[in-house]
């Protein structure tokens, strides 16, 4: 474990902040979830979320620990392009806007992205999709738990495992208590904290260090970071864009919101959320470029954001970063815990183990699964730096890029192409993930998603063109709330 | 059956010799699993040291242009943004003599070619444009 010489935040202050915000989130979770009586209440917040809360939750969930901590890491490693490239992740939210509307139209009673894939493509493709989706969800959960531990270790010197355990436990508890309603409600408050805190830090960094000093020292010490012809960063640009698109298009985090938002809300909410999100990585990432000017030693790339903030602002900066990242972490961890537990409940528990499970049984299963997911995440995050892929936040995150980007085309084709071939969809994910992973290890983490998306596109188009399979769209609305899993095959339109 | 019989005094002397031999090595800072190549101008240097260290970077084998890039008690440093070239790093304990460098490494930075970089860029742009086209044209038919 990488340790710093001296912690910036006194341990007692860190514990105080942890305790105060832990109590706040858990209390809000309990309060917001007090009217959850059924699985639908718990999983989809009554399917009537309005525009303000919907936009806030879209943006806050997308501002993850990865945004607030990986954006600076990417600026430190890939320079200006890394920072701008990360902000292209906003296109994932913006492009999901039309999909959200289409999803709501096609499946007014739907629960998960798995439901759609099962009904649209059949059992084999559904199982491949579940594999892809769960690998991603798990990778994201671990990366956020790691971010929590790194943050607390960087700022307060509290042992990584202790900090990670506390943050993860808090998120599990309030997700357990409140379901999606609590997740969306806390997201709104967390959005305000994140935007205000990030803007304050960027402004203070520029004010204290100045653009000229930042530019001069970068040219002296790390000139490639300012180069527009930085090869790895050029390769990274579309990789990150497609990674973001893949994350959002396939993940049940975003599908569950599309189902939960009121009619005609999804399109506007995702569009607005994306536009609000766009500047956040630039603001958060920019501070890392001040590292040479400040003469800070960065022992691990994913610690750079908190270190710069603390150096520039001292105790106040450390407290602001602590609160912002804790809010960002909580807003994403809870969303992912909720959405992944829904996916596991619907598609594995009900889909494969207990097809006749009642609403009450599903509600109970959802809660047990949240706890199990938390435990598995804790176990994996405990091995940060000791398992090859679980090295740094970016390394872990972009490992999952190959998987999620390969799911872009099966989703788009499934929603818009009437003749999309189900087998092609499965093979698009399998081959896209496989070759994307190969490129991750053979070329670099900055191309895995790009290769996955390109291979997936070729397979999906070729498979559908050579072996078209017409589909009856109405079948989705007809079957989406009661079809027992495991025996569905896509129906050929007559 | 083979029976190992070592006289206690000899055993103690052996242990003492090992400790004396190993002592100085443990006290000197050493790079831990240093990288040899980088294709993106960045890497992390880790080291093991009992206390504060001085880390220098140079571009030539004789360290003529060496300059201190870190001095303190951390155990690693992220290096990034380096252009193509061979970079030398050396390490010593902060309280050691100025010439008492205990470890040196060389890392070669050779960025991906621009042809490869723009090749990936072009593939990414093509996939993105097809995606935009698919979504804009994506009204269901039939």
CATH topology of chain A: Sodium/glucose cotransporter
DSSP strand (E) fraction of chain A?
under 5%
The main β sheet of chain B shows up as: 5 strands, mixed
Shape of chain B: elongated
CATH superfamily of chain A: Sodium/glucose cotransporter
Number of strands of chain B: 8
Distance between the termini of chain A: 61 Å
Low-confidence stretches of chain B: none
CATH architect. name of chain A:
Up-down Bundle
Helix segment count of chain B? 2
By CATH reckoning, the class of chain A would read: Mainly Alpha
Number of helices of chain A: 22
Key terms:
heterodimer; A: 494 residues; mainly alpha; Sodium/glucose cotransporter; globular; disordered C terminus; B: 142 residues; alpha+beta; Immunoglobulin-like; three-stranded antiparallel beta sheet; 8 strands
Explained architecture:
The complex is a heterodimer of chains A (494) and B (142). By secondary structure, chain A is mainly alpha-helical. In chain A, 76% of the residues lie in helices and 0% in strands. In chain A, α3 crosses α12 and α8 (160-209) crosses α15 (304-353). Chain A is globular, with a radius of gyration of 22 Å. Chain A starts with 10 loop residues before the first helix and ends in a 15-residue tail after the last helix. Mean pLDDT of chain A is 82; it is low at 483-494. With 142 residues, chain B is α+β, with helices and mostly antiparallel strands. Chain B has a domain at 28-111: Sandwich (Immunoglobulin-like), CATH 2.60.40. Chain B contains two helices and eight strands. Chain B is elongated, with a radius of gyration of 26 Å. The model of chain B has no long low-confidence stretch (mean pLDDT 85).
């Amino acid at each position: 474990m990488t340790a710093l010489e001296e912690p910036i935040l006194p341990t007692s202050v860190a514990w105080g902040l942890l305790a105060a915000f832990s109590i706040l989130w858990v209390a809000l979770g309990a309060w917001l979830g007090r009217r959850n009586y059924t699985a639908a209440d718990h999983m989809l917040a009554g399917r009537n979320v309005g525009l303000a809360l919907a936009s806030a939750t879209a943006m806050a969930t997308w501002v993850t620990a990865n945004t607030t901590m990986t954006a600076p890491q990417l600026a430190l490693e890939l320079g200006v392009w890394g920072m701008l490239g990360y902000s292209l992740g906003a296109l994932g939210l913006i492009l999901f806007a039309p999909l959200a509307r289409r999803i709501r139209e096609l499946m007014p009673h739907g629960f998960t992205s798995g439901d759609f894939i099962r009904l649209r493509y059949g059992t084999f493709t559904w199982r491949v999709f579940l594999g892809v989706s769960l690998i991603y969800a798990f990778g994201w959960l671990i990366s956020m738990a790691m971010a929590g531990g790194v943050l607390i270790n960087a700022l307060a010197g509290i042992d990584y495992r202790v900090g990670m355990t506390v943050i993860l436990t808090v998120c599990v508890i309030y997700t357990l208590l409140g379901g999606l309603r609590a997740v969306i409600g806390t997201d709104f408050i967390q959005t305000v904290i994140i935007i205000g805190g990030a803007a304050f830090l960027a402004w203070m960094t520029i004010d204290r260090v100045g653009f000229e000093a930042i530019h001069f020292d970068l040219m002296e010490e790390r000139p490639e970071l300012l180069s527009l012809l930085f090869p790895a960063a050029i390769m990274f640009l579309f990789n990150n864009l497609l990674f973001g698109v893949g994350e959002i298009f396939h993940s049940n985090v975003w599908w569950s919101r599309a189902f939960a938002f009121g009619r005609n809300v999804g399109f506007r909410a995702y569009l607005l959320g994306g536009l609000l999100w766009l500047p956040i990585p630039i603001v958060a990432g920019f501070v890392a470029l001040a590292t040479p000017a400040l003469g800070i030693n960065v022992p691990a790339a994913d610690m750079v954001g908190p270190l710069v903030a603390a150096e520039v602002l001292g105790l106040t900066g450390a407290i602001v970063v602590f609160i912002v990242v804790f809010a960002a972490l909580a807003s994403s961890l809870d969303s992912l815990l909720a959405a992944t537990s829904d996916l596991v409940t619907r598609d594995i528990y009900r889909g494969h183990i207990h097809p006749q499970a009642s609403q009450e049984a599903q509600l109970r299963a959802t809660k047990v699964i949240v706890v199990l997911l938390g435990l598995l995440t804790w176990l994996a995050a405990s091995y940060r730096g000791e398992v090859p892929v679980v090295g740094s936040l970016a390394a872990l995150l972009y490992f999952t890029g190959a998987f999620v980007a390969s799911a872009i085309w099966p989703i788009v084709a499934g929603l818009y192409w009437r003749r999309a071939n189900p087998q092609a969809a499965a093979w698009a994910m399998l081959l896209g993930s496989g070759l994307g992973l190969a490129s991750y290890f053979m070329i670099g983490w900055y191309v895995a998603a790009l290769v996955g998306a390109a291979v997936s596109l070729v397979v999906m188009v070729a498979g559908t063109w050579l072996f078209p399979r017409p589909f009856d769209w109405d079948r989705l609305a007809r079957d989406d709330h009661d079809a027992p899993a495991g025996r569905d095959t896509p129906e050929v339109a007559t | 059956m083979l029976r190992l019989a070592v006289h206690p005094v000899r055993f103690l002397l052996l242990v003492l010799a090992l400790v004396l031999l190993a002592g100085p090595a443990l006290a000197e800072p050493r790079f831990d699993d240093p990288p040899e190549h980088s294709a993106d101008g960045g890497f992390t240097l880790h080291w093991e040291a009992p206390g504060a260290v001085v880390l220098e970077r140079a571009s030539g084998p004789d360290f003529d242009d060496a300059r201190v890039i870190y001095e303190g008690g951390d155990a690693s440093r992220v290096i990034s943004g380096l252009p193509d070239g061979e970079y030398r790093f050396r390490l010593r304990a902060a309280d050691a003599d100025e010439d008492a460098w205990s470890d040196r490494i060389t890392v070669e930075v050779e960025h991906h070619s621009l042809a490869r970089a723009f090749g990936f860029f072009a593939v990414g742009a093509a996939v993105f444009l097809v995606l935009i086209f698919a979504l804009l044209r994506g009204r269901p038919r039939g």
